[in-house]
Design goal:
Elements: E1 2-3, H1 9-18, H2 24-34, H3 49-58, E2 59-60, E3 65-71, E4 77-82, E5 88-96, E6 99-103, E7 107-108, E8 126-127, H4 130-145, E9 151-156, H5 166-177, E10 189-193, H6 197-205, E11 211-215, H7 221-227, H8 230-233, H9 236-250, E12 254-260, H10 268-278, E13 283-289, H11 303-315, E14 319-322, H12 336-341
Parallel strand pairs: 1-2, 6-9, 9-10, 10-11, 11-12, 12-13, 13-14
Antiparallel strand pairs: 3-4, 4-5, 5-6, 7-8
Helix pairs in contact: 1-2, 4-5, 6-9, 10-11
This protein binds S-adenosyl-L-homocysteine (SAH).
Residues 112, 114, 116-118, 157, 161, 192-194, 215, 257, 259, 288, 290-291, 293, 333-334 line the site of S-adenosyl-L-homocysteine.
Length: 345
């Protein structure tokens, strides 16, 4: 049975029209689902019994099952959820000075094969449905309800490649963005891709207001080929062309993510090359400390070198942020908790 959380507001309107119902019902139902956050259709007290039965017959009100939860010293929470078919996924809740941010998973496993990433240890088993991604946000929001707190930011940066599950991820974003539902502003939703160029172009054509982040991690093709197999299909110059077009046509700023890997991509020369590559673009670079995955042998750059790398970028006219580690004392790297759970780490 399809989950009702798979439906965008417009799709729900269509479904209701097909049931011979008035369009305003969609607003009521969305409000029950996402504002009052019900756990049973029966709770919808202003919806007729007849419509409740029809919804119950056709749609499930699926929620995720928590199987594990780790809380780090800095308050970062990592959830391991079980889906209906028994597969597991991870979701992370982070506390920033600007609010609560949630990192959601878009696929069970990942096929992109980035060499430093724990997610790739478990190949893609399937795409998540829009409802399963929505479910992660709703579950965490329900937990926050108890403290009267609200999720302010969503990053699609958990396990999986969102642009390898494009339609469902875009529907997910639409659902959580809807004013009739969770109403999370488009500019507070970030989608992160390893660089699937045709999908970046499709995203550009959609004129969305969501933020786009690109996992770059290297500024030359030789190294990027080694670290990220996707670079063979869409090398740096092709990727940069698509990004420039998107950024200029849509007047949007881009974020480049760059994990600092000790002795691999963190030299002064590489900082200068990186600055050259993005100079003149409406972009900034997010320098990310590496969360060590024992299997892979990469090490995180030390703080002194990271600061130097940051300084070189700034001196070369490129905006950058040096992100502090979140949830260092828990298995916070993408896919680490799950890989451990499945016995792969
Ligand atoms: N596939 C998408 C989104 C998931 S990965 C993408 O590639 O952007 C989200 C981010 O976490 C990426 O920048 C990825 O490179 C980074 N990442 C993966 N493993 C990491 C680790 N062990 N430590 C720090 N960042 C990691």
């Amino acid at each position: 049975m399809q989950s009702i959380y798979d439906l965008s507001y417009e799709q729900l309107q269509d479904v209701l029209a097909g049931m011979g119902e008035k369009a305003y019902r969609a607003k009521q139902i969305y409000s029950w689902l996402y504002k009052k956050r019900i756990t049973s259709f029966q709770e919808m007290s202003d919806v007729s019994k007849g419509l409740i039965s029809k919804l119950e017959e056709n749609y499930s009100l699926d929620t995720l099952k928590e199987v594990q939860k780790q809380v780090a010293k800095d308050g970062t929470v990592k959830f391991l959820f079980e889906l209906n078919d028994g597969m597991t996924i991870e979701t992370v809740l982070m506390h920033f000075h600007f609010g609560k941010s949630i990192c959601v998973t878009s696929q069970v496993g990942c096929n992109m094969g980035c060499k430093f990433c724990a997610s790739g240890l478990l190949k893609k088993q399937r795409d998540l449905t829009a409802g399963e991604i929505v479910g992660q946000v709703l579950y965490v929001q329900k937990e926050l309800d108890a403290q009267d707190e609200r999720i302010g930011n969503i990053v699609v940066m958990g396990t999986g490649e969102p642009f390898d599950n494009y339609d469902r991820v875009m529907n997910f974003a639409k659902i959580v963005n809807s004013d009739f539902g969770l109403a999370i502003g488009a500019r507070h939703i970030t989608i992160s891709t390893c660089g699937i160029v045709p999908k970046i172009q499709e995203f550009a054509r959609g004129k969305y207001q969501y933020n786009l982040a690109i996992s770059l991690h290297a500024s030359d093709n030789k190294l990027r080929d080694e670290l990220m197999p996707i670079n063979h299909a869409y090398p740096i110059e092709v990727l940069m062309d698509a990004l420039k077009e998107y950024s200029i046509d849509n007047h949007r700023r881009l974020t480049f993510e760059y994990i600092l890997l000790h002795g691999v991509n963190d030299s002064e020369k590489q900082a200068v090359e990186l600055a050259k590559l993005v100079k003149g673009m409406n972009a900034y670079i997010n320098l990310i400390p590496y969360n060590q995955v024992d299997e892979h042998g990469f090490k995180s750059t030390d703080e002194k070198q990271a600061l130097h790398f940051y300084d070189v970028l700034m001196k070369n006219g490129v905006k950058a942020t040096l992100r502090s580690k979140h949830g260092d004392d828990i298995d916070a790297a993408c896919g680490q908790l799950r890989a451990k759970h499945e016995g792969k780490l």
